[in-house]
Hints:
This protein has one domain. It has helices spanning 18-21, 34-68, and strands at 4-7, 10-13, 76-80, 83-88, 97-102, 111-119, 129-139, 142-143, 148-155, 160-173, 179-191, 197-207, 213-218, 224-226, 237-244, 247-255, 270-277, 284-290. The protein contains two helices and 18 strands. By secondary structure, the chain is mainly beta. A hairpin with a 2-residue loop joins strand 7 and strand 8. The longest helix has 35 residues, at 34-68.
Amino acid sequence: MKKLLISLSILVVFGFTLNSCIKAPNEPTAGYDVVTTAANSVQFLEAPLDLYLQADRAIRFQRDSIIANHIHQSTFSFKIGYVNLTVSPADTTTYPKTIILDFGADTTKSYTGKMYITMLGNMRVSGSKCALVYQNLIAGNSLIIGNDSIISSGINASGSIVSRYNIHGGHLNGYGNQVMIYDGRVIAKYNLTSGANVIDSLEIKGTDINSVGYRLYSIPIYKLQITSDCNYFNTGIIKSDISINNTLTGQMVFDYSYSSSGVSGVCDSDGALYVYSYISKTFSQQYLFAAKKFE
């Protein structure tokens, strides 16, 4: 297996011997830039998911903190790790309600800037909505822009809060710090007992600066999941269809269940990437990638 480390918009080759970098004269090629499209695919997938997880956690934590501390006042602030969270009004019954996530200015952290969440209702009640706005929000070198919202479907029979995250007009930076645009939706289920957050369904469509099209989507029987005791997605598969000039050119399969330990589902950053080409049908390669840590 060839080893590539893919982390958001940066893709670094490591562990190659010289011979493995040299193609034999008749060795097939993908017909498209695997490095760029792999890095961009990861960014299209993990950046929106991380934004959703930040917002979802803030919505749940502000409620839990208000109840635990018997708060009923105009404003309440507390910290989640390095993130300062402020909610106003600080109670469990008054809406609309504003949550501000202030990530600060420390560029060594995952984010800088702010996220504003406007809650129009109790997100444990079906039909409740909230809007997300980003102010100078930067992840790595990427300025996050978008018009996003979360709609609740309430709590299902399994005790999970079901939410739909809608992504509109998203902008972020991909490989080579080039701007990409995207839209999409994520349906997630957070189990109130286990603390597991399962990505039930996902579809994200994007375009990079070279007009390469991306369609990322989930596989129903291999769902992404992040658990209460792990900061990585350690199960699930996502596919990324690559199109050039509106023609399906290749496909990438990201397997978050893979672990170099040989045990599937271990809590680590390991992932396996399988790359295919519709141009050169004999092309098939396997790589490793490093999944993003949720903080």
